[in-house]
């Protein structure tokens, strides 16, 4: 049975987490099996991946390992072999269609940098929304207001639906008057 050095396991786990382990295939036979995989080098990611071979018993204990890196022929195993073993023990057998699509998605840094805003209703949940933003009422007929803009009217004088109704009535009468004149 083969054992790994502590550093090989921790470095192999980092390679696994960084998705450097690829093309892993397990071939089983009557005496156990073989696991073949490729591991992208940690620092020279454009170089050819290391070929890793792991021979296992029927109970899946490691018998023998090989890796094409410099440390790959050592008795204690290298970080690339450890990464493939960790991959085999952690990887689930999901197909690509079982996972959400990953193309045309913004990077996490972009999502954090350009966060979307939220609506007033999201900022103040549970509060009544008294003003119908789609309404096209005019407030020019409001009397006894020295300077009246829509913004100042909403902010100063309209507190509830009860306050808006007289304004709507004025607007309705005005519209009826326009129709009669035409």
TrEMBL record:
Residues 52-89 form the SWIM-type domain. InterPro entries: Znf_SWIM. One of its GO terms (molecular function) is zinc ion binding. Keywords: Metal-binding, Zinc, Zinc-finger. The keyword Zinc-finger applies. It comes from the Eukaryota. This is SWIM-type domain-containing protein.
